[in-house]
Specification:
globular, alpha/beta, about 30% strand, single chain, about 25% helix
Amino acid sequence: MKPIVLFDYGVGNLHSLHKALSRRGDAVMIRQKLGGLEDARALVLPGVGAFGAATEALGPERATIRSAVDDGLPCLGICLGMQLLFESSEEGPGAGLGLVRGHVRRLDAGRCPQMGWNDVDTGADRLFDGAAGLIAYYANSYVAAPALEEVVVARSTYMGDRFPAVVRSGRIVGIQFHPEKSGAAGLRILDNFFDEIR
């Protein structure tokens, strides 16, 4: 079976995410250079860090990612990786991948970053099968502002600011929280994504 490719672009929580993705026996390859992605089952963009630095680090791989996703490769963005799916961010300069229309904005809250556990209101999406009552772990100061509301499949609220927790556009999924650090329900969401594309 083709491997899941975990892109190491110089930011991110690679160790915990690799452990979560490979725990069922799936082949997971960490790559710093993507080359072609014809051999990949899915691409995962991790993320802990700043948007501007991350877009710069994407560098020449940007075209490879866009081409592979346009050709149908499933893509999962987590935390900063989700924000990179969008076009731009208030956090800093640089263009995102533009795989999902919209931009990234700062949380409208008196205390940032949001660090810790928060409820997630999930919609009727198979990503959340078996993950009812989801409470997830967040570490973020910025959130997505999609151009189209229909891509939002889950939301959370932090200090009165309601924002997208999960977005989906076809085979592209962005998760603002860290499913790999969100207990059994978070791991179930990862399982559901990879079961779906299997």
